[in-house]
Structures are given as structure tokens and as C-alpha cells.
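Researcher: Here's the sequence for the chain we discussed earlier.
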Amino acid sequence: MSILTHDLDRPLEAERPMRTSDARKAQLSRIALQALSLLSMGSVLTALIALRTAIHIWHLPA
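Model: Thanks. This is the structure I predict for it:
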């Protein structure tokens, strides 16, 4: 049998629906929420640093 046509008659793994438990879904939801809050805090911190830098540059003598 050729390597190119080997196992082409089997369904692909992605075609089967994944079954995840409710506990796993809740855990993934918590992880996603924590990641989103971490990214939000990072963006707020970046904005504060940029604002402080702009204020310092604005107050420099010309």
C-alpha cells in the first residue's frame, strides 16, 4: 500500500465532536477570564506609563 493513500478511508480526528465535561469547561472558562483580566491590567499599566512619560516630556524645558 502506498504511503500517500494509507488510512485515507478513515475519518479525520477533527470530524468527530469533542466531548468535554462540565468541570473542564468551567476550568477553561476561568483560565480564559484570568487571561483576559491579566491582559486588561497590562494594557492599563501601559497606558499609565505612557501618560506619565508624556507628562514628563511636556514639562521639560524647551
